[in-house]
Amino acid sequence: MKMRVSTWGQVSSGLLISMLAACGGGGGGGGYGSMTLAPTVNFSQPAAAATINFGQAMTVAWTSAYSTSCTASTSSAAAGAFTGTQMTSGTVTVVPTVPGSYTYTLSCTGAGGTKSTSTTATVTPGLLAALAPTGTVLTVGSTVDPTFGDSNPYGLTIAPATSGLITKGDLVVCNFNDGATSTEGLGTTIIGLHPGATPAAPYRIAQSADLLGCNALAMLPDDSISAAGWSSNKNPLVSATGTVGAPFASDTFAQPWGEAFVAAQGTQPAALYASNAPANHGVVAVGGTIDRISLDANNAQTSFTEIVSGFCSGGAPGAIFGPAGLTYDASSDTLYVVDSSSASVIAIAGVSSIPKDGIVVDGQCSATTPTPVPTFSGPSMASAKVIAHGTPLFTPISAALLKNGDLVVGNGDIGVETASGTTNLLIEVSPVLPGGFVGQPVQVETGAPGALFGLAATLSDQGNQIIYFNDDTTNAVMQLGPITSTTPNTPGPY
Hints:
Blueprint: H1 2-22, E1 40-45, E2 50-53, E3 58-65, E4 69-74, E5 84-86, E6 90-94, E7 100-110, E8 113-124, H2 127-134, E9 136-142, E10 151-158, E11 171-177, E12 189-193, E13 203-207, E14 214-219, E15 225-229, E16 237-238, E17 244-245, E18 256-262, E19 270-276, E20 285-295, E21 301-316, E22 319-321, E23 323-329, E24 334-339, E25 344-348, E26 359-362, E27 375-377, E28 384-389, E29 396-401, E30 407-411, E31 425-429, E32 437-443, E33 452-459, E34 465-471, E35 476-481
Parallel strand pairs: 2-8, 21-26
Antiparallel strand pairs: 1-3, 3-6, 4-5, 4-7, 7-8, 9-35, 10-11, 11-12, 12-13, 14-15, 15-16, 16-17, 18-19, 19-20, 20-21, 21-22, 23-24, 24-25, 25-28, 26-27, 29-30, 30-31, 31-32, 33-34, 34-35
């Protein structure tokens, strides 16, 4: 018995020593760290096959373990910039440059070897291209004022709520021409359309000399309407019951030409943005500006600040050049400006924080158009960027925000005398795609050039994109998009 116990003790002791040695113990080794493990690598974005619209950016994010270096590659150069040496864990933003299907591969190497993994993305055509083959351009309703006969619809927006005379989802339009003489710049009326009926009959919301030459509209959450009066040099505020007020009468406007409303966010108050396009006696010259009117909870002005100056502006009704088509994207606090004189779309990032005279536009203004692509100076110059320029833009005048963050832009066609396949175009513009232009333009009117003015975008109840535009050839609001709902959703900041 003693011999057996002693022998067993020796055997078990030797086994224990062998086990410790195998695990790196007992001899002062490195413990588990001396074991060689194979690398692992995983994509967290997109974790599964992704689908995005052409013109959108996509985040590619990954993590790896037991690796010291990683290398990225794609199935095509059109997939975006995901190539070469990468961090062992990180993120990259890619912008595919054409529609298609793409594979993104990451190979990570460590002491235990190399491990590769892939993820895929399908890039569908842009939103505008998707609407064009299947959508039908339909007439929503006439914009002719039922009392005075004012016509030539310019400003267009979508009611965010039901209040006073206005129903949520109504299309709100102002007319640039008067009814008596059809003179451009003498219109004084705002009308509404209920888009559920086809065709919808216009109803009068407001009429006032303060609205003289009304060309752009923005609506506040309570259905108040901020209007740009190019000929009156005023920016009246119209209540949902049609009362025309002048809360900004102490401010100086120089033929206002664009409007956008920005809701309060955090500590940032609500604000209206208005652009000015002074005529400059028919010569295109420096003079275009953008003003910010900060508002309190009761829509009362708390400050007035000119934040951008130096846009080229000029011309006369029928051929006005200047900063127009103001469109705001709340997701990035970015204000987009359609610069008709240079045929450009400009993004102003962090616009709510731009100080007085923060951006000066060097439009290199001249008597002829288009003027050169703008450059910028001033303390906030880095916030301004030209995202699209030149053909197919031809004196662009209006814009609206699409659901994927792109813009739809309409041409004004100033100076074009003959209708062709390159007139009355809608153009999709991406803020992130190199060059900006997404796919091919869509011609939505084949009559006389220069028919397109106000633009607005919303979603149907089924989430489908709908685009509304003013057609001054027919004096009507038109719709591009599937007919899947009779009542558009609340449009948001379009």
